Amino acid sequence: MKADGNRFSLVRWWSVVLKEFLQLRRDRVTFAMMIGIPIMQLFLFGFAINADPKHLLTGVIAADQSEFTRSFLASMRNSDYFDLATTLVDEAAGREALAKGQLQFVVTIPPDFTRRLVRGEKPSLLVEADATDPAATGLAVASLSQLVQGVVNKDMKGALSPLAGGAGAGPSGAAPPFDVRIHKLYNPEGITQYNIIPGLMGTILTMTMVMMTGLAMTRERERGTMENLLATPVHPLEVMTGKIVPYIFIGLVQVTIILLMAFFVFHVPFVGSVWMVYVSALLFIVASLTVGITLSSLAQNQLQATQLTFFYFLPNILLSGFMFPFVGMPKWAQVIGNLLPMTYFNRLTRGILLKGNGWLELWPSIWPLMVFTVVVLGVALRFYRKTLD
């Protein structure tokens, strides 16, 4: 009998396999995560992520309304990279729109552009770009040189053909009869760390805050210490807020470490107020902690809490504009991204550190964080009461 017990038995092996399948069938949450989530994420991220953004919002300050300038603007529109969305009054309005993130480009055509062009004085067009995310505008900026050559070849004919100087047409490779001056605002050298480090702050806070609270709550339920709370008259809101306060302190310590490394190691500029960063981080930390509590109320064990955390974490990384340009995603994906708190926190940190934005420019990203926190806190209270029951 002992010798038979040491032999490999297909019958016993198949019994163990069936037992595992039955256990997975009973644990429907885990089974759904293992099958449904990968399929959903494959379709979602496969269609949403785009590293070559098109139709970038562009404002125009057109002080010269000649046929040539209209042809140049039409060429920009036809290139698919630029969406001439609005006409601006002056440069101040353009800078304000760029600071608020309402536009990616502002094109300024001076009033005497055509007259100087006809005289052969080589006038200049100014294109200002929001370079906080170099990947979002880099390809569009690179397309401008080809766009200029196309306009010259098309419109500089007849009496104006000597002004073309053979630009883009002949082997001489002569310069075009006008310049396109490109000003990359907020990150002129296109340094990747200026864009990545502020985004990493949101990534680290999302991962740690959501996971720590999610695991802490489910761990107490597994250990049975949650029953001690049932014997006390503590209100669910008191329990939740009391549990997240230590993690708020930990999150602020993380923010301090990241800011110090960003400044001294990666030399990220601090154009705005550091206190605005802390206020924004506080809102984001509270929002992330409420998400963690909600996920812990849905999870039955720590494994499910970890899986739900990963399911929440991945869209925040890929659809918030951290790894891929937000403006490059299709509209439906941007709608999903605008439901995620990390999207707004990325805009806040980049706006403060790189642009020096004040409260007026930051408010469009602050109030969604506040609304998100209140809504998720209400959901967390509801599920937490069910957990206690």
Automatic annotation (TrEMBL):
Q: What is this protein called?
A: Multidrug ABC transporter permease YbhS
Please report a single Pfam family linked to this protein.
ABC2_membrane_3
Q: Where does this one sit in the cell?
A: Cell membrane
Look up the record and report any one GO term of the cellular component aspect: plasma membrane
What family does the entry list?
Belongs to the ABC-2 integral membrane protein family.
Which species does this protein come from?
Answer: Ralstonia flatus
Superkingdom per UniProt: Bacteria
PROSITE patterns in the cross-refs = ABC_TM2 (PS51012)
User: Which key words tag this protein in UniProt?
Assistant: Cell membrane, Membrane, Transmembrane, Transmembrane helix, Transport
